[in-house]
Design brief:
Jelly Rolls; about 10% helix; 3 helices; mainly beta; globular; 12 strands
Length: about 160
């Protein structure tokens, strides 16, 4: 998992995978305040970003997930959320279920300690297939979050 803020993107560019930096840079240029929720084309990438709002929930009410073929890039536009993250271990892998045909694998929340990351406007999390994550978790004083999620093919890390 990689986390950061769009304001620090230029300084972190040399440390990020090119494909991830390119998507984050494209997101940084978008005016999400003037875009309605839904799928939005990510200019020059052949990808779509999903812009949506949701009511947050306690971590224990969340669903953990991972993806086989895609990297998830989450960016908070307004509000705040916590994302719980844990490594995809053999124990977690044994609890998997879901929709591999849609690149969505769901898990019981891991018993092992999870890392909790709070994301506020302008902050992002990059989650790899080996990161189990439960997004949309509550932050005290915040009941909802508006965010954008991009599914970046894992194979794009090898391109170029």
């Amino acid at each position: 998992m990689i986390t950061g803020h769009l304001e620090c993107l230029r300084r972190a560019g040399s440390e990020s995978p090119d494909a991830v930096f390119s998507v984050l840079n494209a997101l940084a240029k978008m005016d999400f305040q003037s875009i309605e929720d839904g799928e939005v084309a990510l200019s020059g990438h052949g990808l779509t970003a999903k812009l949506f709002s949701l009511e947050t929930h306690p971590v224990e009410a969340g669903t953990a997930e991972s993806h086989l073929d895609n990297i998830d890039i989450h960016l908070v536009v307004s509000g705040a959320e916590k994302i719980a993250q844990a490594p995809l271990t053999t124990a977690a892998d044994a609890t998997r279920q879901g929709q591999p045909e849609n690149d969505n694998i769901f898990y019981d929340l891991p018993a092992e300690p999870m890392t909790m990351v709070t994301l506020k406007p302008g902050e992002f999390a990059v989650l790899f297939p080996w990161d189990i994550h439960a997004p949309g978790c509550s932050v005290p004083g915040e009941e909802s979050v508006r965010k954008v999620v991009v599914k970046l093919p894992l194979e794009s890390l090898k391109a170029g």
